[in-house]
Amino acid sequence: MARLLSGIQPSGEMHVGNWLGAIRNWVALQERYEAFYCVVDLHAMTVPYDPPLLRERTRDLAAVLLACGIDPDRSALFVQSHVPEHAELAWVLQCLTPMGDLSRMTQFKDKSAQHQNNVNAGLFTYPVLQAADILLYKAEAVPVGEDQVQHIELTREIARRFNARFGTTFPEPQEVLAKTARIRGLDGQAKMSKSLNNHIPLLAPPERIADLLRPAFTDPARLRRSDPGHPEVCNIFTLHQGFTPAEEVARVDRECRAAGIGCVECKRLLARTMADALAPIRERYAALSADHVDGVLAEGAARAREVARATMAEVRERVGVLAARPSPSARGTP
Ligand code: AMP
Ligand code: TRP
């Protein structure tokens, strides 16, 4: 089986955009690939954060992923910092990456605008650590939302540059996009994102989902109930495509165009289908203990480390660093 890797930052609560854009695909793809799913805590350190909260969110995000259906018997679910080779490979790859390439990254431009008083070097080299995440496992497929395509393209360039300089080592990974690879937020404009606070939390109970949807932005051209709607531009309709059964979606599409269904009713229907789809995730999440999650992460890290060590041994050999001979004073320590 070909390998797959993806990552998600423990930087806040998971939302419906993450789920439709990426995580749902993670779950589906684990049947066809040897999958590595990584909670990227080192990436989350590139913007201001609170240390105890980072630790808590790292475990919590792993729990949410398990609740979403990541199956630890099939896939390795692990924390990035538990496998030190990620940071080591990132260094090697940084030495192959021109500053100009990194300054073109849109996520860097957005985040450095958001955090003007903390534009640190880690924020700048963030995509290289992401490339290391992927290449360390020689992953061929990377399921992500549309906002990450630029980073995967850069990863391919880094792989090509490494291969050309040191001999073929890495495959060029390909992004795998979901049908709904870009979900807009409740404002109907920007991408749904926890930092913009325009999101629907994945674990929101039904009443909260309904409350969030009620004032959500719809079709700007439909001012009155009697105006014909344009589902193709309406974010509520996009969300219907993610949550509502296909026949119902077709009916909503027809009736919206004919002004047969109003926005209030359309949102009420969505609140119901979304709550139904997310209920099993909330239930599974509530049943998970911290101890169980920590056990899964330990096993995931052990599997990941095995692959990571082998790749790093190969990389060290190729890039010309001197192999360390086992120290004569190290008695029995591996
Ligand atoms: P993040 O929460 O930024 O760490 O993103 C985790 C994953 O969710 C990545 O694969 C993103 O591409 C994806 N993602 C985040 N926000 C959205 C969105 N609004 N629409 C679609 N995919 C998204
Ligand atoms: N940068 C990604 C995001 O913001 C998260 C990420 C880190 C990632 N490492 C990765 C995604 C490796 C895919 C593969 O969403």
Describe this structure as you would to a colleague.
With 334 residues, the chain is mainly alpha-helical. It folds into two domains: 3-180 and 290-329, 3-Layer(aba) Sandwich (Rossmann fold), CATH 3.40.50; 206-285, Tyrosyl-Transfer RNA Synthetase (Orthogonal Bundle). The protein contains twelve helices and five strands. It has a three-stranded parallel sheet. A two-stranded parallel sheet has the order 4-5. Helix 2 crosses helix 11 and helix 8 packs antiparallel against helix 11 (263-286). The protein starts with a strand and ends in a 15-residue tail after the last helix. The model has no long low-confidence stretch (mean pLDDT 95). The structure holds adenosine monophosphate (AMP) and tryptophan (TRP). Tryptophan (TRP) is lined by residues 5-9, 40, 43, 130, 133-134, 142, 144, 148, 151. Tryptophan is lined by residues 5-9, 40, 43, 130, 133-134, 142, 144, 148, 151.
